[in-house]
Amino acid sequence: MKNAFLNKCVFVTGPGDAITLSENSPSGFPIAFRSCDDCALSPERIDLDRRCLEECHLLEGMGRLRLLNFQHNLITHIHNLSHLRHLAFLDLYDNHISQMSGISALASLRVLMLGKNRIQRTCSLDNLTKLDILDLHGNQISQIGNLSHLSELRVLNLAGNCISRVDNLQGLDSLTELNLRRNCISTVTEVDQLPCLQRLFLSCNSITSFDELACLGESCSLYELTLDGNPVALETWYKQAALRCVLQLRQLDMKRVTEEERRMACVMARKEDEKKRESHKQAMHKEKRRLAIRNAALQWEGVRACLEHPAQNGAKEEVSPEASPAHSPAQTNGLGGGASLSLSDSHLAELDGETLRLFGLGALEALERGWGVQTAGAVTVIAFRYIHFDAIVPTLPRIRVKFPNLSHLIFLETNVSRLPQLAALAQVRRLDQLTIHPEGNPVVSLSLWRSFLIYRLHHFNLHKINNLEVTMNDVISAERLFGTLGHIAATETPRCRLLVLLEESRKRQLQFLLEGRGRRAGLSPEELRDNGKLLGEGLSRALFNYPSRDCCSEGAMESSSERRAVMEQYIQAQVQRASDTNLKGESLHKLWPSMFMEMVRDYVLEMRDRPTFRQACLNRLSTQGK
Amino acid sequence: MLKNSLQLLTLSPLAAETNVLFYLNDAVTQLLEHKEEYTQFGIVRYFAEYFSSVKNGNHVLFREFGYIKATAHNRASFIRVLWRCFRQIGKNGDLLAMLEYSSLLQLLCPDFPVEMVQHAARIVLMDDAMDCLMSFSDFLFSFQIQFYFEEFLESIAAIYQDLLSGKSPNTVIVPTSTSVEQLPQVATEETEAQEGVDSSVFGECIEVLCERFKHNHPSTSAIREVLELTQRVTFYGFVMALVRHEGINQDIGALPNKSELLIDPEMDQEVEKLIAQIAISPTSNSSSSVPGHKEPPRKASPRKSLHHRKRIEMESDGSTEETDSSEN
Fold first, then answer.
1. What confidence tens digit (pLDDT) does each residue in B79-101 have?
2. Would you tell me which residues 498-557 of chain A have a C-beta closer than 8 angstroms to some C-beta of chain B?
3. Residues 6+ apart with CB under 8 A from B298
4. What's the predicted TM-score (pTM) here?
C-alpha cells in the first residue's frame, strides 16, 4: 500500500473542500474522510486515478457521489461500491479487473468504463437498467451475453476482445453505437433486432463475405459502417457490395457515401433482385415444362395401353410405365428447352432455335395459331412426341404451307403401327429427312417399313431416314419390292374407282383426260394399262393414301344403310321388269315363226278370191270413212 | 352393255352362282354415293367398266373388307391380286411376321381385319410361337384357305372341339361356333392323351356338314383324300393338309402351283422397266434438294406439244407430288 501516493492526492470536489485521509482504519483500508465542513457539500466527483490502488476504497459518507474515477490503477476486484446509490459515472479504465461482480447494486449507474481490464465475461448488469454507455474494450471477452436488461444502453464498446460471433443482442433497444473493432468476428447476426442502431464498427475482424453480414441489410437504422481490415474489404467489388447490402448507408469506413455511389448501388441491387426473380421464374418454368412432358408421357402410356393390340406381346405393356417416365426426365434434361409457345399441365409446345417440339395431344393447337413469316420460316425441324399419329395426320398438309423451310420430321412415341400410315406423310409434299423412332412406333419393327417409305415418298428424294442415308441401292430395292404393287394398282384399278380414290388435283386431271380423249365404253386391257402412263409416274404411289378418320360418321352409316335397302328394292323391281321383258321377248322369238306362218296363211286365204277381197277392202274403207 | 347383263340374268341358276344381283346392287350403291364423279364419267361407261372389272378380278382393289368378303369370286380375286402385287416381296426371300403381312394387306384394303391374318398365321405356325416369321408362299396359301373357306373352317373347328371333348360322333352336329358342351373330365383327358381325333370319324362329320352347308367348302373328294393319309388328325394338321392340297388350290383357281408361285416373267420385265426409269432419272438423292429452297413454279418448256402443255397446267394446280423425269 503506497500511502505516499495518497498523501499527494488532491481531491477536486468542490470549491474549498479539503479532504483528509485517515491512516487508521480497522480493516487496513484507506478510508477517505472529508471534513465536517465539507460534509455539507458532499462531493459529487472523486478522482482516484493513478494511485496504484489495488482495491477500491470504501468511501463513507459519499452518499451523493456521482462520478468516481479509478483509472490507471491496479484494482483486481470491484468492492465497496454498493452503497453509492447515486453513482452515475464509474471509470475503472486500465486496471486488473477480471470479474465484473460488485457493480450489481449500482442501479443508477449511467456510464461504466471497464476498458483495458481482464474481464472474460459480462455479468451482474441486470440491475443497471439506466446504463447509457458501457465500455468494455480491451478485455478478454469471447462471447457477447447478459446484456439484455440494458434497455437504455446507447453506446456499447466491445473493441479489442476475442469475440468471434455477434449475437445475443436482444433487449438493447436503445443501442445506437456498437463498436466491435479488433475482434475475431466472422459472423454477424441479430443486428437487425437493434431498432436504433446507427453506427456499427467492425474494422479489423475476420469477416470474409457479405453473406455473413446478411442481417445488416435488414436493419432500418444503420447508416454508418466500418469494415476495413476485414478480408472482405480486399475484394474488388467491396464497396458496391457493401452499399448493396446496406442500402441506406451514409458512411462507409469513415468516408461519406456519395449520392452517385448510392444510386449505383440501388440500381445494382435492383438488377440482382431481378436476376434472382428471373432465375426463379426460369426454374419454375423448367419445372412446369418437365411436369407437362411427364404428364403427356403418362397420358400417352394410358392411351397406348388401350390401343395395344391383343396380339402383341404382353411384355411391352408391362415394361412401359416404369421405363418411359423415368426415361423422359433424362431426355428432357438433355433437350435444351426454348421459347415455350403453349404450356399446360399435360402438353407442351416449344420452339428451340430451329426445332419445334410438340409433346402431348394438346400441343397440336400450337400449329394452328398465327405464325409470323420470319418465325415460321426459321423452323426446319418439327418433332412430335406422345401424340397419336392419327391425330397428327390432318395437320400434315397445312404444315407444309405454314413452314416452308421444313426439312425434317421426327416422330417419337406416336404409335405409327401400320404401313398405310406411313403413306400419310406424302401430304407433306417435300421433306429432306425423316425420323421415326423405334420407341413407341411399332412400325419400325416391320422389316419392310423403310423400303415402303422410300417407295411411297420417292418423289421426296429423302436424304436420310432415321439418320441412315438413303442410297441408290435402297431406292432400287424399294422399287423392286413395291413396284409391282404400284404398277398393278395404277393400271388395273378401274377408273371409276380411281376417281374416288385420288385427291382433288389428280381427279381433275383424270377427268380432263377422260373427256379429252372421248373414250367409248368398254375399255380394252391395253387401254386400261395406259392409266399409269397418262397420269404420270406418281399415280401408282399416290393411290396409297391414309385418309383421316373423320369421313366415317354415325349418321353417314345409317343413311347409307337405309339407302342401300331402298336401292335393293328398286333394283329387284328393275331386274324383275327386265327379266319379264326378256322372257316376253324370248317367248315372242320362239312363237314368232308359227305366228308369222299363221299370219301369212290367213292373208293368203283372204286374198285367194281376188274380186271378193277387193270388194271387202273397199267396203272396209268406206265404213271407216264414216 | 345392257344386253350383256340381261343375258347373264336370264341364265338363272348361273345368276345365283355368280351373284349378279349383288354386283348390281353394289354398282348402283357406289354410283349413288359418288354421284358427282360418275355423272361426269358417264353412267353407261361406269357400268361397263364395273362389270368388266368384276370379270377380270380387278374390282376388289382398294375396296372395303365387307365387299371383298361378300362373294367367293371376290375372295378369289383378292387372293389373286395379293399374289400378283406382292410376288416380288416373296421373291426377295424375306421371312416376315404376321403383323407385317397384315400391314401389306392393309395397303390394298385399308380396313382388313388383323384377326383374319392371325388365323392364317396360326395355320402356318400350327398354333405355336405366334411371332415366328413366315415365308411368302406359306403365308399366301394358308391365307387362301383361311379366307376362302372362312365359314367352313369355323364350323369344322367347332366339330373338332366337340369330338375332342368326347361327344358321340353319331349325333347330328349342327355346327355353330358357340356349341361347346360341358362333358365329364375323364373323357376329355382320355382323348387328349392321344393327339387329335380319329380321321374317319372326323371325315364323316365333315361330310354330314358339307351336305347342307350353304357356304363354300372344299370338294368332299379332296377332304377324303386328305383324311385317308393318317389315322389320327389334329385340327391344324388337317387344315395344313388342305392348304397343301393341289386339287383344292386349282379348284379355287386364284393361285398357280406352289412351285410356280414366284414365276411371272412378264411382271419381272415390268419391274425392270420401272427400275430402269428410276435409275436414269436425274432426280437422285444427293443432287437437288437444298433446304429452304422453295420449289420454282413449273414453266412449260417451249418444245412440248400443245397437249402436253395443257397437262402441265393441270398438274401445277398444287400437286407437286409428281416427278416427271422428262421435265428435269
1. 999 988 888 888 888 788 888 88
2. 499-501, 503, 505-509, 511-516, 519-523, 525, 536-538, 541-544, 546-547
3. B312, B315, B316, B327
4. 0.62
